[in-house]
Design brief:
heterodimer; A: about 425 residues; mainly alpha; MetI-like fold; 2 domains; 3-stranded antiparallel beta sheet; 3 strands; extended; B: about 450 residues; two-stranded antiparallel sheet; 16 helices; 2 strands
């Protein structure tokens, strides 16, 4: 105030009102520019997320349906004798049926090309049905089998018919055959249940995620069973019981650092210790779960400590006041109240573990395995490693399968995070 | 059989709980006050049986396979394995194991069949032994703790001691993990440096890990100089940080100071989604969208762009790091005391000036900590580079060239065949050790900066 009165004697202002407003306008403009940059940055992040999701959806949606051909097959006893089961000329029978539907194909010279319209796995569909019911031999049955990947792509419009014939995997005659089958109403594109119920395969039209889903289930179960109790135990000790000394400090720093160790290093640990020294089986979801547990534990410990900290001291003091021991206070009062927060943190930790790929690659969970694991000690893949395997496969059909598998993985992540958010909103108490 | 052992243990532990609780109740019913509640007598018995026997089973399971394998190898006729290197002995062992599973190729020699027989017998004996030992030990402890029940026995303290011990062991797991990491890396890296001199590794400018598998094979001799590999890592991490830092910081600044509440409520969850996307998804995105786009643009402009450029991998990695940096910076800005902001605004500064000249400088330590953690993540990130970066190590800093990284080399060296006796496999551990040291150094530095900063304002 004193300044203003003294300067007031020389004149009211050093700068005129108009000059000042020009300066103010400039400063305001600078403000707006900064805001503009901020909005641009957010837009950039949003655009990338949009492109990411859009590219996955546009390449992946076609893998959720699968082209099938339905045909009447005469199960020729000459080709499939009953006493020869489960062996028999199933493929020849299927080919004969297709040739019957394609009058312009020559049964002698085109048999091989016509057979290739069907998936290599089609014969096994027929075999399974005949083995289950041998009385079908000699009858004509209607069967629906997947077509081979090139024709699947053709049907889904991923093959441009205008490209020169030699640059396509299907030539003009094959396209004509396929169109003939389509016109005869034999081609259908139902929902691809096989994507979830089939195990992996070299043929994209047969490959599914069953093995990966089962492997991921075992790995996450192992991870949860190990990381959850140990993480909570460690967190309770550090938060409630540990004396404030250098050892506790060291453990704390250790946990924080462990949370930031690159995941591939955990893979090296698992490879050297679990596989090489302990002799645990390679590619087993159990070992994967064990590795993921070590990585998830810091997350669970940090979340649990935060949840324990959030319980107000009045609860502890009241319980102590009526004669409970320190452990009775913690296990009887503090822990139940902190449980929603702990569960939220655990689910988020498991969601991270679900997407972890690198450590699983190092312990061999990227093997090619055509059956689902029946125990956590069987060789298996996991969802993210399956994505990695498919992304590396050259067949066109695997591109859309990879995107579809990613969409399945993201769906699981959204589901888990949704549960975590629901738990947090539903049970979290504010004091 | 292992399951049976666990079941026996569980049954006896529950039996111990019930027995001791009943005994304590009987004392109370007799009119004597017990020191501890009957429940604690039961709990003590349960833990006393469960904990030691459970640990015993775990130790047994860990040691079973190595010990039995050693016994089988020890029992092999000397004439067959004398003078063979370790790898070949392992191969014989694998053959014997596959015989026990019924997978034979041709007729194996008699001594292998005998060994397979022995292996099967040993496994069966071990399982029976486990069940007997578990049952006997549990029963013995049960008997001992049952005798401890008395009015003056401090069962609550005893039980709480065991629980405390369990919790301490849980927190030691974190330390054990770190020790395990360090030990495994140092041990295997040491074996690597026995084969390849340390100075060659540290200062060599050529990385060609393809060594001949057979003696007469014509292949590269193998060179293990890590400089081109770490250079590639630095190139990709730099590209990532060039993208992530400005976008992340500007996002945080806007969200923290300017964004209306509704916008903030939308943007924050979206950024969380972005940070929750698994890296394998980003890797596929780089291969599917970014790399072809870059190649197309390059072709239009007349550049020769390789199919797996550092730019594609680094760019996608930068996208991955945006939410990481923005949330760290947002937290750091929020932690600046309200009084600084109010003071600046009261002096007539615009909100932008307040942000850039007051809040941002005050939050710098936290922001630097976050950026450093992001750098450490960029160096250790694996899947994006495995899928989108190259395999050949080149001494180049051209972002349009294909480079490789430490993590890519670790994964490619260890995928598939992993014999622990050749430098190709062990080189991965040497790289892993360097990676661990590097990221640990950055993390410790970052956490220290963040922590120091918090002390000022809290």
């Amino acid at each position: 105030m004193a300044d203003i009165t003294t300067s007031g004697t020389d004149g009211p202002r050093r700068t005129s009102l108009t000059e000042s407003s020009a300066k103010v306008a400039k400063r305001k403009r600078a403000d707006l520019i900064l805001q503009g940059f901020g909005i641009a940055a957010i837009l950039a992040a949003f655009t990338v997320l949009f492109i990411l999701v859009a590219s996955l959806v546009t390449t992946g949606y076609s893998a959720f349906v699968q082209t099938h051909v339905t045909m009447d097959v005469y199960i020729d006893p000459a080709e499939i004798p009953e006493d020869g089961l489960p062996r028999g000329g199933f493929q020849d029978v299927l080919t004969a049926s297709l040739l019957g539907s394609l009058p312009d194909a020559d049964p002698e010279t085109d048999a091989r090309a016509v057979r290739n319209i069907l998936s290599n796995g089609a014969q096994f569909y027929l075999r399974d049905r005949v083995v289950a019911d041998p009385s079908l031999i000699g009858q004509t049955i209607s069967i629906t089998v997947p077509v081979a990947d090139p024709f699947d792509q053709l049907n889904k419009g991923n093959v441009d018919r205008a490209t020169p014939e030699e640059q396509r995997r299907v030539n003009d005659r094959e396209v004509a055959w396929f169109d003939a089958l389509d016109e005869a109403g034999m081609i259908a594109t139902p929902l691809n249940i096989g994507l979830l119920t089939n195990a992996d395969s070299r043929f994209p039209e047969l490959a599914g995620l069953r093995g990966a889903l089962v492997g991921t289930f075992w790995a996450l179960l192992t991870c949860f069973l190990i990381a959850f109790p140990i993480g909570i135990g460690a967190a309770i000790y550090l938060e409630e019981f540990a004396p404030r000394n250098r050892i506790s400090d060291f453990i704390e720093v250790n946990i924080n650092n462990l949370a930031a160790v690159p995941s591939v290093v955990f893979g090296l640990l698992a490879l050297a210790v679990f596989l090489n020294w302990f002799g645990l089986p390679r590619s087993a979801p159990f070992v994967g779960g064990l590795t993921l547990a070590l990585m998830t534990m810091p997350t669970i410990i940090i979340a649990t400590r935060a949840a324990l900290k959030a319980v107000p001291p009045s609860i502890r003091e009241a319980a102590l006041g009526i004669g409970a021991s320190k452990q009775q206070v913690v296990f009887g009062h503090v822990l139940p109240l902190a449980m929603p927060g702990i569960l939220t943190g655990t689910i988020i930790g498991l969601a991270q573990a679900l997407g972890e790929t690198a450590p699983l690659l190092l312990i061999g969970m990227n093997a090619f395995i055509t059956s689902a694991a029946s125990s956590p000690f069987d060789a298996s893949t996991a969802l993210p490693t399956q994505i990695f395997i498919w992304a590396d496969s050259p067949e066109r059909g695997f591109v859309s399968r990879t995107s579809a598998a990613i969409l399945v993985l993201l769906a699981f992540l959204v589901l888990m995070n949704g549960i975590a958010i629901y738990l947090r909103n539903k049970f979290e108490r504010r004091w | 059989m292992t399951l049976l052992a666990f079941l026996i243990l569980a049954a006896l532990a529950v039996a111990a709980f019930v027995l001791n609780r009943t005994a304590a109740r009987a004392i109370q019913a007799g009119g004597t006050r017990t020191h501890s509640l009957a429940y604690f007598h039961g709990l003590y018995a349960l833990l006393a049986v469960l904990v030691p026997v459970f640990i015993l089973i775990c130790i047994f399971l860990v040691l079973k396979t190595p010990v039995i394998n050693a016994m089988v190898i020890g029992g092999l006729p000397d004439a067959e394995i004398a003078g063979l290197p370790r790898g070949e002995v392992d191969l014989i062992l694998a053959t014997i194991q596959s015989i026990t599973r019924g997978q034979t190729f041709g007729t194996p020699p008699d001594w292998q069949l005998a060994a397979a027989e022995r292996l099967t017998t040993l496994y069966a004996t071990a399982d029976i032994l486990l069940v007997i030992v578990v049952a006997a030990l549990s029963a013995a402890i049960l008997f001992l703790v049952r005798r401890q029940v008395a009015a003056e026995f401090r069962a609550r303290q005893a039980a709480e001691h065991i629980v405390l011990g369990l919790m301490i062991s849980c927190s030691l797991v974190a330390i054990l993990t770190t020790i395990g990491i360090v030990f495994a890396l140092v041990f295997e890296a040491y074996r690597f440096f026995e084969m390849v001199p340390f100075t060659d590794f540290l200062f060599g400018t050529s990385w060609e890990p393809q060594i001949p598998i057979r003696a007469d094979q014509i292949a590269a001799v193998g060179a293990f100089g890590w400089l081109p590999v770490i250079l590639g890592t630095v190139v990709i991490a730099t590209i990532a940080m060039f993208i992530a830092t400005p976008i992340g910081l500007l996002t945080a600044i806007y969200l923290n100071e300017f964004a209306p509440h509704a916008l903030r409520a939308v943007v924050k969850p979206v950024l969380e989604i972005l940070s929750g996307v698994p890296t394998v998804v980003y890797g596929f995105f780089a291969v599917l969208v970014v790399a072809p786009a870059l190649r197309g643009t390059g072709a239009d402009l007349g550049f020769a762009v390789s199919s797996n450029t550092a730019l594609a991998a680094g760019g996608v990695m930068g996208i991955m790091l945006i939410p990481f940096i923005s949330s760290f910076a947002d937290d750091a800005l929020t932690a600046v005391p309200r009084s600084l902001r109010d003071g600046s605004l009261a002096l007539g500064a615009t909100r932008g000036e307040t942000m850039l000249k007051v809040l941002f400088p005050a939050a710098i330590p936290g922001i630097v900590g976050g950026v450093l953690l992001a750098v450490s993540r960029a160096i250790g990130e694996t899947m994006i580079v495995v899928m989108a970066a190259g395999l050949i190590a080149r001494m180049t800093i051209n972002p349009l060239d294909s480079v490789t990284t430490v993590t890519v080399q670790i994964v490619t060296l260890l995928i598939g065949d992993t014999a622990f006796d050749n430098p190709k496999t062990l080189a991965a551990f040497a790289l892993g050790l360097m990676l661990f040291i590097l990221t640990l150094g950055i993390n410790v530095l970052a956490l220290r900066i963040v922590r120091k900063y918090r002390e000022i304002y809290d």
